[in-house]
């Protein structure tokens, strides 16, 4: 078994956390230093993370998440959002390749206008779905990186996104992708891992 | 640096592949054996993978993907879809926990009806977005597992999803989440990794 296989098999969605295990910004930053490498469409880096350790704000978020206990017992609550207008930042993001001479001015201009046009033509729905798609790729990277550093996580969708946006004053430009709670799992309240479909049930081959 | 950090930093979105490096179903199945462990909302396991190694079908897919050369030079093209009606399978998926006595009949019935109601109330848009969200979590796991086994990948969104559905006769129940090409990267045509935002630009702390 490779270290990665071990990591994947050890990672479980935590059903609860041990309270009083604070996580520092430095520890979180080390996780985010890896999250940075998750791929995003056209390298637009749509995802944004809001990390809440303040206990009053966590209580409000718990109320917005059907009062699930793991929200307040976690070390931090993380709201993953995606920037629906990430494509408007293309010129700045691609500038490095131009400055390094890896692309010339003409290629750069084409890349910027091509990316912009792709999202503009896709419209509101595509822009929203891209926020979710790229935010979720990133969120999986976050959960694995957290486990690699000894932290347990639980991805959550059972919450009132509008209430969360209101509590955290998240701008409409950002789509709420998911909530992730992070902490030290209360292993004593762990259940066996849920049923997983065998590979041949979720994979088809066209040979 | 941990083995996971190395893996993440070694993984690059391949800009092109060396042709004539076939991948076997056995090699792919080994990757999917790990993908199985990606979390999904309520353990509904929305993602489905269609793997194409047939060269004629690959050529059709290339035409549907703005004729990008990496589609035909890849060892396999993978279409990640998400089942919008995954919630209709809740009763079957949760049955194991009931049979093992981990939940009783009342808890089981509640879980099934609660999950079903959550998706029914969410409606078409939520069901589609859940397919994308859970499909993308799974896709990130796929790309890391592939790299762990020596394969390079490129996640792609620049293709005509309707044409892809038509070529592969994918049912409307499934939302096309992304295309992933997999193979052995042609390292000689590799560019430096694109600019990445520093952590403080994509993370906010509420302390």
What does the main sheet of chain A amount to? Answer: 4 strands, antiparallel
Q: What is the radius of gyration of chain A?
A: 19 Å
Can you write the helix and strand succession of chain A as a string?
A: HHEHHEHHEHEHE
Counted by DSSP, the helix tally of chain A is 8
Helix content of chain A: 40-55%
> Which consecutive residue ranges of chain A, at least 5 long each, have pLDDT under 50?
none
Question: Strand content of the residues of chain A, in percent?
Answer: 15-25%
What class do helices, strands and sheet pairing of chain A give?
alpha+beta
Query: What is the tally of beta strands of chain A?
Result: 5
Overall average residue pLDDT of chain A: 97
Q: What would you call the quaternary organization?
A: homodimer
Major protein interface: A-B, 75 and 75 residues
Q: How are the strands of the largest sheet of chain A arranged?
A: 1-2-4-3
First-residue to last-residue Cα separation of chain A:
29 Å
Basic shape of chain A: globular
